[in-house]
Amino acid sequence: MAITRQDTIDYFRLEGARNLLKFYGRYQDNIPDDAPEWKKELFPVVRGIWNSEMGGGRNRYEIGAQLRTAADLFEIHPDGSHHALKNFPMGYPKERTAAIFREIADYVEQWASPLHWEAISNTPISARELIMRFPRLSNILPLYFGQDGAAVSDDMQDASTEEGIRMYIDETHPGCPWNLPAAVAECHEALALFHTEDQLDRFFCGAGMHGGSGSDDFTDFLPLFARLCIEHMREFHSPMWEPR
Question: What whole-number distance in Å separates Cα of residue 77 and Cα of residue 39?
Fold first, then answer.
């Protein structure tokens, strides 16, 4: 059966909830009925959503509403056959799926009420949580630079790191005002979060996103990437905005 435009709308209107729960669909089939177990698993991911929310990302109440919509759909389609439920895990037992989703929605919505700084600070940050901070780099680094530091594109096999970055900028142009400033910010956030080349390499080349940094160390690559993006913006994209 062909996928309709409405199917696509229905699918992506639940994307925030799907991303929250994708660990279960990818690494294990079902969400356990044991709330302390799934709360432990989801805590750092919800913390990542909370952090993203402060930066303008999806808020917890939006994702809570998506979980409740998914729960309603599971009650009508307990086999998960509705197109919007594709790539959603089920609960265990399956007949508890809708109830578990609503319990998770309550947890997500109430996660920071009251704000418990000790719990927030003492729970280790997970790779899944950190990836939320780098939506652009998580596409750029694997796509343009291989895990072994070699460019993926055939056009870039013999390119220097700087040439590879300029190729990315050229392919992004003229949409740079909507892409490069945020990519620059992610470069600086990476340097603030990870303090050594080993830490940067383990995250960006390893479990984090399987990317690369060309022939340079990340401690050189990220400042270079940011500088070249800023230079391009200054040369080709004068700010056009209305103060209202």
Answer: 25
